[in-house]
UniProtKB/TrEMBL annotation:
SUPFAM superfamilies: CorA soluble domain-like, Magnesium transport protein CorA, transmembrane region. GO terms for cellular component: plasma membrane. Keywords: Cell membrane, Membrane, Transmembrane, Transmembrane helix, Transport. This is Magnesium transporter CorA. It is a multi-pass membrane protein. It holds the Pfam family CorA. The chain crosses the membrane at residues 267-285, 297-317. One of its GO terms (molecular function) is cobalt ion transmembrane transporter activity. It is found in: Cell membrane.
Amino acid sequence: MGRTRLYRNGKLEAEGFPVADVSEHVKDPSAVVWFDMCEPTEEDLRAISEELGIHELAVEDALQHKQRPKLDVYDSHKFLNVYSVRFDPDSGRLDVAEAAAFITSNALVTVRNSDHFDIGEVVRRWDDAPALTEHGIAFLLHGLLDYVVDTHFETVEAIDEQIEILEESVFGERPITQGDQRRTFEIRKSLVTLRRVVMPMREVVNTLIRRNDEIGDGAMAPYYQDVYDQVLRATEWTESLRDLLSNIREAHLTMQSNKMNLIMKRVTSWAAIIAVPTLITGFYGQNIPFPGFEHSWGFWTSSVAIVVVSAVLYRSFRKRDWL
């Protein structure tokens, strides 16, 4: 049903062993066990909770999706809920994968609601740092948090690149299209989701640092501090991008408004110019005698008046940058 690993005395001793053997290994104080469950049923979680003494509220939180990132501390264990994220630059949308973890003194149980949470990448990070395996649960938990926070930071970087493209489009020669507006909306929605995921991580990691005596010795403290620094950077970057995207959206609206005003000025100016010949020809179209009636010089007088007045208006509007 899930992946398993056994560390004993700081060494990887076994992996892929049957789930039924987990309870036996947990009884050994020199052993550290990791057990992964993907889309488990309620019965699966109830069974493992009985083996490890997991609080029923923690089990309920693991079953309920879309929990906020948090760290709940119980007497015999901790419950962790986190999210990994991945940004799609083509659509501007965010893929969010939830994972929970039960943390005891010598066991880590990860619970994923889908395969989108790449547990294989977490395992790779563990394998890349064999010198730290002696720190047991603190080492395993750090690998999990390091992967989660790295996905946050990579996503912020990817969104930043897309926002730079949007910035260039604001003052570019190409007109702002409906697709640009739609993309701005999608990225803004992704940033809102990312903020809900990233912001609570400060409290989660900070709590682990303050209670470091319970998750391992002080040798792992610098590694957790590094994760915390990454969380702070991702949080601050997310906030700044959120403000920047709001400014871009306002700039889009302002540019559209300015463009509309320019169009209205031009249309109004041309309408004023066209109104001159309409006025003059309408005046001479009256069925009453007027100066130049039935004489050719009357026609030429009206024609010259049309040209001169229209030219004067055109020059005046151009000088005011209305045309």
